[in-house]
Specification:
The structure holds two protein chains of two kinds.
Chain A (H helix, E strand, L loop, with lengths): L2 H11 L3 H21 L8 H15 L4 H13 L1 H7 L1 H6 L1 H6 L1 H25 L4 H7 L6 H11 L3 H26 L4 H23 L1 H29 L4
Chain B lengths: L1 H22 L6 H16 L4 H12 L6 H5 L5 H6 L1 H30 L8
Classes of the chains: A mainly alpha, B mainly alpha.
Chain lengths: ~240, ~120
């Protein structure tokens, strides 16, 4: 086969969703094996290495993100049903949730407020543009919601998606270390803090620790999504931080 | 068939959630509304169908994978991130640590205060 022939096939393939979908799964497969092989080293978190591999590949082959996302969207789409599926582990922890509803509620409202305000305040303090500040504000809630809030308050939804993923990874990597430092052993407490801070990526990490921590993280993630969507735009406006 | 039935149910709940959120004009995404509706349904039925358990196990088992395409979106923001790397890094790291610590401490304090019988020390 001539180089020309291969180039023609490549031009065809790079415009079909098949390529984007396949490389996403292959990159994740490699990243996940590397993570297991390293003995779950947090620096090799599968999302980090999969994203790195994919960006290197796309930049190397001069493929635009939009062409990649034509296939990547099938994986991205599953975030919806996965969010609905969180109802199941949640239901399985129902008796414990019933006993803890008041502490959960108090932690939720204060945690969401502290999370959003600390990110905007730090970004302002270190000279980020207003658009970047607003893109950072909803970083602790799950990507589709955060993108909606970002748009509403004047951020860039696609930049927010990146900040959400970065926050999730940081939370998943740092969370268990911080809990050891604070000597917190109760899985319900760890799960709530993880879900408020690090949404789905933190919840994925929490499920590796225990089903109880996962369920509480899923609960906190779901409730903080509601809380953030309801109070964040209002809070930023009230503080006069919307610009 | 179990997986297929389960994923169909999840999508139906997502669809109802999407529809409800738009109909009532609430600023919350459809899947989150769908999750709450499914949660209430499970409470009313007092059991989880095996098909739902299969589908949710498959989806939640590799939840991280689902965030990869959004993460790759970083490539279209290289310039902004390079230009504002310091405030972005400080905000991400600082706020993540602050939120994690504050939430854990508030949760530990309030559960001791309001649900004292619940502590399971090991």
């Amino acid at each position: 086969m001539t180089d020309d022939g291969i180039a023609t096939i490549w031009v065809y393939l790079s415009t079909t969703p098949l390529l984007g979908l396949t490389i996403t799964l292959v990159a994740y497969g490699i990243a996940y094996r590397a993570y297991l092989w390293s003995g779950s080293n947090p620096l090799l978190h599968p999302v980090v290495s999969a994203v790195t591999l994919l960006i290197l590949f796309l930049v190397g082959t001069d493929t635009p993100y939009e062409a990649y996302f034509a296939g990547g969207q099938f994986v991205h789409f599953l975030l919806g049903p996965a969010t609905v599926a969180l109802a199941i582990p949640l239901y399985q922890q129902l008796p414990k949730i019933r006993r803890l509803w008041l502490p959960v509620l108090i932690t939720l409202v204060s945690g969401v407020t502290i999370g959003a305000l600390s990110s905007v305040a730090l970004a302002r303090l270190f000279g980020a543009t207003l658009q970047t500040q607003m893109s950072l504000a909803p970083k602790s809630v799950t990507a589709p919601v955060a993108m909606g809030i970002s748009e509403q308050i004047g951020g860039l939804p696609s930049l927010t998606a990146v900040m959400v993923v970065a926050t999730g990874i940081l939370g998943a990597v740092l969370g268990t270390r911080l809990f050891t430092l604070l000597r917190i052993r109760d899985d319900s407490i760890k799960g709530i803090a993880m879900g408020i801070t690090a949404h789905g990526i933190g919840t994925a990490r929490a499920f590796q620790v225990s089903p109880e921590m996962g369920a509480f993280s899923g609960l906190a993630m779901a409730l903080s999504t509601f809380t953030t969507a309801l109070i964040l735009p209002w809070l930023l406006q009230w503080l006069g931080w919307l610009g | 068939m179990q997986f297929l039935n389960g994923i169909t149910l999840l999508l139906i709940f997502q669809l109802i959630g999407e529809f409800g959120a738009r109909l009532l004009d609430i600023p919350v995404p459809g899947p989150v509304v769908g999750m709450l509706l499914l949660f209430l349904t499970l409470i009313a039925r007092r059991s989880v169908a095996p098909s739902l358990e299969t589908a949710s196990g498959a989806l939640l088992g590799h939840l991280s994978l689902l965030f990869v395409p959004a993460g790759v979106g970083m490539m279209i923001h290289f310039e902004r991130i390079a230009g504002e790397w310091l405030p972005i890094a400080v905000a991400l790291l600082g706020s993540t640590v602050i939120t994690m610590l504050a939430s854990a401490l508030i949760m530990a304090g309030t559960s001791r205060l309001f649900a004292p019988g619940d502590r399971q020390d090991d």
